[in-house]
Each structure stands twice: as structure tokens, then as C-alpha cells.
Design a protein that fits this description.
single chain, alpha/beta, eight-stranded mixed beta sheet, about 35% strand
Length: about 180
């Protein structure tokens, strides 16, 4: 399974779940964009220096069909492609929630069309089911992977909003925003 291979390479981080069901496999958690350096003589690594947070990934027959996550900075997008593009299906749907943009963009890069949506706080899953026009009742009795399949199917006619731009152009549209943190009240 694709996610088992990622786990062997140390690419899964803060995992919520990783499971397969038939030809589909689902993953929720963070994905590593830059491995931490080796920290001891046994080869154990320090925490990653960059991750894509709160990812929701669906693979079918070991090819990624849906890739959703949150980037702190748009400049990290090339690392996403370096690590994961080889596993993207030709018809992959990619939606990234990016902290340092404030207007939606459709980024054309490496033969892909990536929906980039500005978001400094919130829950990726809730935003995604809103985009898919689903509600909690649509997932009743479903396994975690089946829920992602339901979202993927609901996104079949999704048309991302925003200007179509190259990655270089998108970088000129970033703003100085940080992820909103929450602490004790």
C-alpha cells in the first residue's frame, strides 16, 4: 500500500489514520516535506523541518486521486511536488489551504492545476466538506476511507475559484499572514 511505503520512508507525521478499503486507501494527518536530520548513531531522525498539515489523501490502486492539506507558506509547494507528484494519478484533484494568501488562486505548475485557498484558521475537513456541498449526514455509518471517497466523488464537478496563474506569479501574490493559534482562554 502507498501509505505503508510512505511510513517506511518516514513521511507520515501526526497520523490520525491510515487504512485501506478495497482498491482505495485513505490517510489523514501531516505529511513530511523535509525530513529532519539524523539525530543519533542509530539513524533516528529529528522531527521534520517542514510538513503539509492536516492532509486528507485518497489513493486508488496506489495512485493519489485526492490531495488536500494546509501549507504555512505557498513557497513550500515545490516540496509537495518533489515528494508526492510521482504518485499523483493523471486526474488528481489537489486543494491546498495556504496561510499566506488572501485570495483564491488556481496555480498551474508541472502539468497540474492546483486550487489554492487562503485560510489562517479553521478545520481542513470542515472546509473541504463545505466545498463538496456535503453535511455530516452524508457520512453516516461510513468508514474513515469511505468518507474520503464520498468527498472525492462529490468534488467531481468542483470548479476552483480564483485567477489562473503560474507558480512564480502566485508567489508574488502572497501576504504577511501567520497561522492563527489558539491557546487557553
Amino acid at each position: 500500500m502507498l501509505f505503508d511505503a510512505y511510513e517506511q520512508k518516514g513521511l507520515l507525521f501526526n497520523m490520525n489514520f491510515k487504512e485501506s478499503e478495497g482498491s482505495f486507501a485513505g490517510y489523514r494527518g501531516d505529511l513530511v516535506l523535509e525530513l529532519g536530520e539524523v539525530g543519533d548513531l542509530h539513524g533516528h531522525r529529528k522531527p521534520p523541518t517542514a510538513t503539509i498539515k492536516n492532509t486528507i489523501v485518497l489513493a486508488e490502486n496506489d495512485k493519489i486521486k485526492l490531495y488536500v492539506g494546509s501549507l504555512d507558506e505557498l513557497a513550500l509547494l515545490p516540496k509537495v511536488l518533489d515528494y508526492y507528484q510521482a504518485d499523483f494519478a493523471p486526474d488528481v484533484r489537489i486543494i491546498l489551504f495556504v496561510v499566506n494568501i488572501n485570495k483564491p488562486l488556481v496555480i498551474e505548475v508541472g502539468g497540474l492545476s492546483i486550487a489554492a485557498i487562503g485560510m489562517q484558521e479553521g478545520l481542513i475537513w470542515n472546509e473541504l466538506i463545505d466545498i463538496a456541498a456535503l453535511d455530516k449526514g452524508d457520512f453516516k455509518g461510513q468508514s474513515a476511507t469511505k468518507k474520503i471517497v464520498t468527498v472525492y466523488k462529490a468534488l467531481s464537478d468542483y470548479k476552483p475559484k480564483g485567477d489562473k496563474v503560474s507558480f512564480d506569479e502566485a508567489l508574488t501574490r502572497t501576504v504577511e499572514l501567520k497561522r492563527a493559534g489558539r491557546g487557553p482562554v
